Amino acid sequence: MILVTVAQDGCGKMESVTVDGHALGLRRGGNIVCAAVTILVRTAARLLEADPDVRVSGGPGERGEFTLFVDSAGQDKNALVKTVGDFLVQGLKDLQAEFPDDCTLEIR
Predict the structure, then answer these.
(1) From CA 52, how far away is CA 57, in angstroms rounded?
(2) Which of 13, 79, 11, 23 is CA-nearest to residue 51?
(3) Measuring CA to CA, which residue among 67, 68, 39 is closest to residue 56?
(4) What tens digit of pLDDT does each residue of 67-108 get?
(5) To which H or E segment does residue 98 belong?
């Protein structure tokens, strides 16, 4: 089971993402749910870190772990951070709906 936790501020802007665990089933590298979570989270992180006015930290930990923290964003970058977070959350909600035994999303 993969647990993804997304922390948001009062306006729904993403503050952090943590991923822990693995989807059950296929061999390492062959599970569509693990691959989808990895691509969604990694792409969100890369979009944010590519902007010089957004500071992020975190990254992969042990196998099956990933953290992303939005440390700061210029006032004019709040919309970018919110949009990237909304995209990530929607993709994760879709995965959870289609593969409820493999992926759980918590929003805080």
Answers:
(1) 13
(2) 79
(3) 68
(4) 999 998 888 899 999 999 999 999 999 999 999 999 999 999
(5) helix 78-98
Which superfamily is assigned to 17-107 in CATH? Cysteine protease Prp (3.30.70.1490)
Claim: this prediction has a pTM higher than 0.70: yes
Task: Say how far apart CA 85 and CA 31 lie, in whole Å.
Answer: 24
Helix H or strand E segment including 101: none
Amino acid letter, residue 33: V
Instruction: Give yes or no for a contact between 2 and 20, defined as CB atoms under 8 angstroms apart.
Output: yes
pLDDT in tens, 10-57: 999 999 999 999 866 656 666 899 999 999 999 999 999 999 999 999
Q: Domain coordinates of the chain in residue numbers?
A: 17-107
- Which DSSP string do the residues of 45-62 spell out, in sequence order? HHHHHTSTTEEEEEEE-S
